[in-house]
């Protein structure tokens, strides 16, 4: 069992921006010829990639942190289970509200899950389908 101090340091190291999955999605989108803004603080949910001319945004979600239905997202830590189930449920609820707010403002949104990066060719097709023809 890890000590509280080790757990605290581990959790402090978790980033919310410029994560490895986000960087991978950014490379794929850029390689397809699209340009974007990052982390628009003026939009609900602070989307990871923003395409202002297209009125589209992309969120890159970690499966664990946002409660995805894949194997990684379905696992819950053994210690402090009640806290983690509540936290992940709050994250998912916040995500739904952010996407609804964006929709009401006329923005389309796409969620890319961390596990989708295991198949970059399929993810590339999904991104192209969402963003439309190359600029």
Task: Please characterize this protein's 3D structure.
The chain is of the alpha+beta class and 135 residues long.
Note the topology.
Blueprint lengths: L3 H9 L7 H12 L5 E2 L10 E3 L4 E6 L1 H4 L4 H4 L6 H24 L3 E6 L6 H12 L4
Parallel strand pairs: 3-4
Antiparallel strand pairs: 1-2, 2-3
Concise structural overview:
The protein is an alpha+beta fold and 135 residues long. 48% of the residues lie in helices and 13% in strands. It has a domain of 83 residues: Endonuclease, Chain A.
Helicity, as a percent range: 40-55%
Spatial sequence of strands, sheet with the most strands: 1-2-3-4
CATH topology of the domain at 22-31 and 63-135: Endonuclease, Chain A
Number of strands: 4
Uncertain runs: none
Protein structure class: alpha+beta
Mean pLDDT: 90
> What's the story with the biggest beta sheet?
4 strands, mixed
CATH class of the domain at 22-31 and 63-135: Alpha Beta
